Amino acid sequence: MARASAARNRCPYLLGRSEHGSGGAIASPKTPAASPLFRQRRLARGSGGNARGSTPSPEKPRPPLTLADTSVWVHLLQTRPVAELDFASLVQVVTCPPVVQEVLQGLTSERPWPGLVPAILSLPVLSDPVPLALFRSAAEIYRAGRSRGYTIRSSMDCLIAAIAIEHQAPVWHRDRDFDVIARFTQLHVVRSIN
After folding, report:
1. How many CB atoms neighbour CB 35 within 10 A?
2. Is residue 127's pLDDT more than 80?
């Protein structure tokens, strides 16, 4: 206990407050920039340019990415052979680890769909690896739905929704769970009509 108190006296900025008025700037929630830990470096900028003085080129707007749920992949595979699917036209479609897992575990063998596994694995992947914070968000989505009287049938759908919300990507789906989740979260959905 005495050692912890001595450490606080020597390094009060580590805790964000000063207990003994030791002088100097102490980090606090109100004035984080006052601490030497949060010193701001000022850059000399020319008019309309960056730190080197050149004018930055305007960024081209990126097309919105759409996260395709497993239900869409299953529907596509049931309605047309993989040879007819034009994966090159799916440039705006992304996937995530839970969708990859669900698609791969649903295959009985790779023989009927020889190009499917490489095609799915070649899509851009959101949240790979999936951080622990997104698992917590998925649990919060499930609990929030339950508290509002909604039954979400798949906890995996909660994780997919958490990933989509994190990346602000709409979910393209054929699964009612996502419509339910979109009612009480910031999830955007694109419902497949055929």
Report:
1. 15
2. yes
Question: Which tokens go with 123?
Answer: 């899509």
Sign of CA dihedral 141, 144, 146, 149: negative
Neighbour-count burial of 82, counting CB atoms closer than 10 A to its CB (0-12 exposed, 13-18 middle, 19+ buried): middle
Classified as helix, coil or strand, 173 is strand
Same domain, 32 and 114: no
Q: Phi and psi at residue 61, in whole multiples of 5°?
A: -65, 130
What confidence score (pLDDT) does residue 181 get? 97
The model's pLDDT over 137-191, given as tens digits with 9 standing for 90+, comes to: 999 999 999 999 999 999 999 999 999 999 999 999 999 999 999 999 999 998 8
Long-range pairs of 18-23 with CB within 8 A, sequence gap ≥ 24: none
CA terminus-to-terminus distance, the chain: 67
Tokens of 141: 């989505």
Domain encompassing residue 94: 66-191
Domain total in the chain: 2
In a domain, 45, yes or no: no
Statement to judge: residues 108 and 172 lie in one domain: yes
